[in-house]
Amino acid sequence: KSTYTIAVLPGDGIGPEIVAEAVKVLNFVAERTGITLEIKYGRIGGIAIDTDGVPLPEETVATCKAADAVLLGAVGGPKWDQNPGHLRPETGLLGIRKQLGLFANVRPATMHPTLVAASSLKPEVVSGVDLVVVRELTGGIYFGEKKRYTTEDGREAAVDQCIYHEDEIERILRVAFELARKRQKRVVSVDKANVLESSRLWRKVAERIGAEYPDVELSHQLVDSCAMQLVRAPKQFDVIVTENMFGDILSDQAAMLTGSIGMLASASLADGSFGLYEPVHGSAPDIAGQGIANPLATILSAAMMLRLSLGLDEAANAVEGAVWAVLEAGHRTGDIAEDRSNAIGTIKMGELVLAEL
Amino acid sequence: KSTYTIAVLPGDGIGPEIVAEAVKVLNFVAERTGITLEIKYGRIGGIAIDTDGVPLPEETVATCKAADAVLLGAVGGPKWDQNPGHLRPETGLLGIRKQLGLFANVRPATMHPTLVAASSLKPEVVSGVDLVVVRELTGGIYFGEKKRYTTEDGREAAVDQCIYHEDEIERILRVAFELARKRQKRVVSVDKANVLESSRLWRKVAERIGAEYPDVELSHQLVDSCAMQLVRAPKQFDVIVTENMFGDILSDQAAMLTGSIGMLASASLADGSFGLYEPVHGSAPDIAGQGIANPLATILSAAMMLRLSLGLDEAANAVEGAVWAVLEAGHRTGDIAEDRSNAIGTIKMGELVLAEL
Ligand SMILES: CC(C)[C@H](C(=O)O)[C@@H](O)C(=O)O
Ligand SMILES: CC(C)[C@H](C(=O)O)[C@@H](O)C(=O)O
């Protein structure tokens, strides 16, 4: 295959700015490797609410379904924060995950040597951190039944159901074990099996799948212990796999350990090679439109796309190598600069990566 | 009132050792202040499973109900880890919370100046941290309906229900606001209102109760953001209030920020002045019986009991002051010692606190 279609959803806030730089990188790589990339733009989040009246227009879903991969900027902003649920940007994000079957969220948290100072943790605790959180993304309490009602005695009540089926648990665990095989071969499965029934099923399935991967070491941690261990000694982790809600919390905590959330990429994968790629950070409405946002997390997300959806390992390595080279040369956007007066802008950072490539 | 009954549940692992030191402190305080303490011992956790066949014997519940306050060591250990749910030590803990109506878990995470080096975070990030996590303890997904079943197409499934009523949310928020009034007057209410119905109800109730406390500043954080902010800048927090599951994770994360979990106390409060007091750390079966466990978190829990259940503020301050004085004099148990070869044992640490008193 030499022609690929990429759906690009810039979204809100800094989304359009950072996505523009990543698209330049993708186009450059395509030219260099002789493949053809067809880029199709779509709307999601606040911009879609404003333009189409819904956070996830059907047209966008169709564009994504017809593509080989999706690149997303970020969604959300204060403008839509007071909207009712179905008209909120995040609802678009949850919708696209479900509709595209993106069940596996893969988030590396890697401490790059030149950025150790940016962390709030001691250098000796974080240098060398290289972990991945694999989060189940289309099940659990996020998508279980929700209810609001008033009891007979007049009290308002709300219910969220957390539900998991064994096949949902099985497929996310396989993603984690396969990934661990290419890494340090250690999986920590995180649950709350001492309290939750869904966690007890999770642990049982983890044991069963783990037996199919005798070369990978499996251990279990309770979610509260894991939150502690991430603070105390994050280097102990290789691959962490967990359910949707715990993964939301732990992957953000793990990201912040590095201190450079503007550097972190993520992939949300479906069966097969299809995936959606986006930076871990949000839409940063406070700095939108100023040309100062860090595009590197989005560029690194594009690199993940090249590797995981397009099978272009070499190109992916080249992009990642270019990013590290630019950092090693001392270039910084404001979010990761120790001295902000020397910080460069979004476009300049994109150009430096391209030049390095 | 000059006679108080204290139920003491030493539990498993290091529980009996650390509780013994705290009881000595309580008895000393009683003598000094001229009150009479009746100490009644009870079994909970693994020791109760072994002796009574259940993790929470009715006799223990009765002893606690007849008391003015409860002091608990810790429960659990590898011996009972493979037991079925109803025969696990944690089930005793969950049971006593529910049966005694202990809906408010209050956990201070304070960075004592002499212990800053113990933290995995940079000194400038953690020194001065002084926050309290107020966790709802008898509702939410912990106590909602649990189900395990097989679907028509033969897949195993598990369900946990997260349910909250507005009065449950209201009373825990009042605990947080009242506490904030005696502190820096700032409450951060943590939820996942962009996804969960129970969080939307939570936020609505928080707004309503917040309006009754115009002197206290209320803000909302999403649980994933809060996990990040606790790593990035923990000093921003005064009082954090949240539901049961999020509180389990965030309070452990907050505790570990200080690096000295062997120092942290907790209170689990019911309506009125009744409460159960226990150290944040667990039963540490690996060091049980060696006389090296740190009794200070339990002694500080006893101080919380003096203040919150017995109304003996002065005595509470004296106990806390004695603990800090002993630390400032350089005495350390192994868990908080920079040089373990100088570490002192459990009994010695208890004696030093008594001597200081
Ligand atoms: C915006 C929100 C619904 C989303 C989530 O909770 O999954 C976000 O926090 C994330 O982690 O991608
Ligand atoms: C032992 C366990 C059931 C308990 C909880 O999750 O509440 C513990 O982690 C705690 O925080 O006291």
Question: Can you describe this structure?
Answer:
The structure is a homodimer of 357-residue chains. With 357 residues, the first copy, chain A, is an alpha/beta fold. Chain A has two domains: 1-103 and 270-357, Isopropylmalate Dehydrogenase; 106-268, Isopropylmalate Dehydrogenase (3-Layer(aba) Sandwich). Chain A contains twelve helices and twelve strands. Chain A has a ten-stranded mixed beta sheet with strand order 2-1-3-12-11-4-5-10-8-9, with helices on both faces. In chain A, strands 6-7 form a two-stranded antiparallel ribbon. In chain A, a hairpin with a 5-residue loop joins strand 11 (265-269) and strand 12. In chain A, helix 10 (296-308) packs antiparallel against helix 11 (313-328). The first copy, chain A, is globular and about 60 Å long. At the A-B interface, strand 6, strand 7, helix 7, helix 8 and helix 9 of A face strand 6, strand 7, helix 7, helix 8 and helix 9 of B. Strand 7 (156-165) of chain A pairs antiparallel with strand 7 of chain B, so a sheet runs across the interface. The complex binds 3-isopropylmalic acid (2 copies).
**What is the highest CATH level, the class of the largest domain in chain A?**
Alpha Beta
Please give the most extensive interface between any two protein chains, plus how many residues each contributes: A-B, 58 and 58 residues
Bound small-molecule species: 3-isopropylmalic acid
The helical percent of chain A reads 40-55%
Number of helices of chain A: 12
User: How far is it from the N-terminal to the C-terminal residue of chain A, by CA?
Assistant: 23 Å
* Strand residues, percent of chain A: 15-25%
Q: Provide the structure class of chain A.
A: alpha/beta
GO biological process, one term (chains A, B): L-leucine biosynthetic process
Subcellular location (chains A, B): Cytoplasm
Domain Isopropylmalate dehydrogenase-like (chains A, B): 5-353
Binding site for substrate (chains A, B): 97, 107, 135, 224
